[in-house]
Amino acid sequence: MNVIDCQKVSKDFRRTNALEDITFQLTEQKITGLIGRNGAGKTTLLKILAGLTKHRSGEVNVFGKSPYNNLMVSENSILVDDQMTFPDSLTLEEVLQSAPAFYKRWDTEFASRLFQYFKLNPKQQHSKLSKGAKATFNMIFGLSTRCELTMFDEPTNGMDEAVRSDFYRALLKDYIAHPRSILISSHHLAEIEQLLEDILLIHKGRVVLHQSLDEVKEYAVAVQGLIADVERWTVGEEIIHSKRIDDQRLYVVVKNNSKLERARIEGASIQTLAASEVCMYVTSETKGGIDDVFK
Amino acid sequence: MFLSNSSLFSVVKAQVKFKINAYNGLIYSLIILQVLGILLGGNAGSSGTSINSTTISLNTSTNDVSFILVSLLAISVGNLLTTKAYRYDDFSFVATRLSSNIANFIVLFIFSCFAGVTTYFSGYVMRLILHFKSTSEFVDSSSIFNNPSSFLLTIVAIITMLWLFSSIGYIAGILFQMHKLFFFGAVVIVVMLLMTGTWIRISESIFVENGSLLILIMKVIIITILLLATSTAISNRLGVRT
């Protein structure tokens, strides 16, 4: 059964289209990275999946149900982001104590061990926490719910380097011990790459790629060489990105295919790309780069 | 894949427990207002007369002031529960808009019960203070023992009135959260309606012309439930963390 099934989902805010015809399915027990640039629509999509906002058209199903105002979806999913709030009248300790009444699979022991490890003050209020500590607490809360669908929206914003790597490790260990569907959004793919099985790349409100991490890595390659040579090798190819290295040499990113073998024989330097580079080039607005601004 | 599936009832129950626990700081506001009410209402009016060498002075005290202050508190608490901070808190845990609204109505009712009972008995506290403070020879008032059923009815009437006030605050808050213009539009419409003769007649027939307190209580409960149901219907589209 699909955990998430989106068919042609659209959402607009006043004049701008946040999401356009989003279609994808998420199968059970995978860690999927929701990748996209600033303003790509990641947060909007997550909020729709969590039932916090309503989409305009299309069909959204989470566990086979429309998430908006659905109790079962709310009970089995959680969205951890920096806008999570908890009552000011409760201390962090009390917030954690009230969670098991709502989340049937809440792990009290796990929550308190993480809480102690990250040295949070149990008597403090949520709104008084620093940005990083708030993100840490939200992450502890989200992991401890053990929800079948756990979503993180830029979870490491504000966390320092050490807490970040601890968080990724905790997420992975907990996932292995209690497999569930995890959707984690980030614009730093390189940082979360080692966690992910699948990548869902969205750009300008549309799904660009939804493939496994390995497939994404092989999606495109970079060809580098003398301008004339590179242009000849890549003629008829879909050029994703091109950049002048200097007066004589060109660097071009094209979709990976077998025709490039000939170029390789002719001495072209063909480089594989990291998944984060593929995502960056695929979603870049212009064929050039920042250098073009200075020309 | 294991999916838990709780009933609406059990989620509302958990939410009510959580809210009572989280909002119990409101009790301090209630205590302060009631003390203020006792101080202000303790000497509401006095008249005196003297026959020959005997002077009679009559001092009346009332806990109406307490009731008015607590009613204002009820309106503001109703409004408070609709503010973003309070609504968003629900969605950090398990909630739907329906369960949140129902839990809020129950919480408002429980608070109204607490405030109603304490407001009623603040009248007794006032009498006790008058006994010690004033030079009056004689303090008289109707008491529980004179007429137990009317005492109960009075408390229930206070409770339902407070619940009504909190629901007015609630619907006003929801309208304000939807759009500021809705709120001001609603205020203008209500004020305009109140100035027309028919609506004065209607409100008179609802609140003033009642054969007994029991009928008033029934009417107030029905109006409150209507207000709360309307709030639920219009808040169904309110987004969270937007």
Description:
The complex is a heterodimer of chains A (295) and B (242). Chain A is elongated and about 70 Å long. A six-stranded mixed beta sheet of chain A has the order 5-6-7-3-8-9, with helices on both faces. Chain A is of the alpha/beta class. Chain A has helices at 42-49, 71-76, 92-98, 108-117, 131-145, 161-177, 189-192, 213-217, 227-233, 260-265, 275-282, and strands at 2-13, 16-27, 31-35, 57-62, 77-80, 149-153, 181-186, 198-203, 206-212, 220-226, 239-244, 249-255, 269-272. Chain A folds into two domains: 2-212, 3-Layer(aba) Sandwich (Rossmann fold), CATH 3.40.50.300; 218-294, Alpha-Beta Plaits (2-Layer Sandwich). Helix content of chain A is 32%, strand content 29%. Chain A is built from eleven helices and 13 strands. With 242 residues, chain B is mainly alpha-helical. Chain B has one domain (8-44, 58-178, 222-237). Chain B is 72% helix and 6% strand. Chain B contains nine helices and two strands; from the N terminus they run ααββααααααα. Chain B has helices spanning 8-22, 26-41, 64-80, 84-92, 97-133, 148-178, 180-195, 197-208, 213-234; strands spanning 45-51, 54-60. Chain B has a two-stranded antiparallel sheet with strand order 1-2. In chain B, strand 1 and strand 2 (54-60) form a beta hairpin. In chain B, helix 3 runs antiparallel to helix 5 and helix 6 (148-178) crosses helix 7. The two termini of chain B are 31 Å apart. The mean pLDDT of chain B is 87. The interface between A and B is large, with 36 and 35 residues.
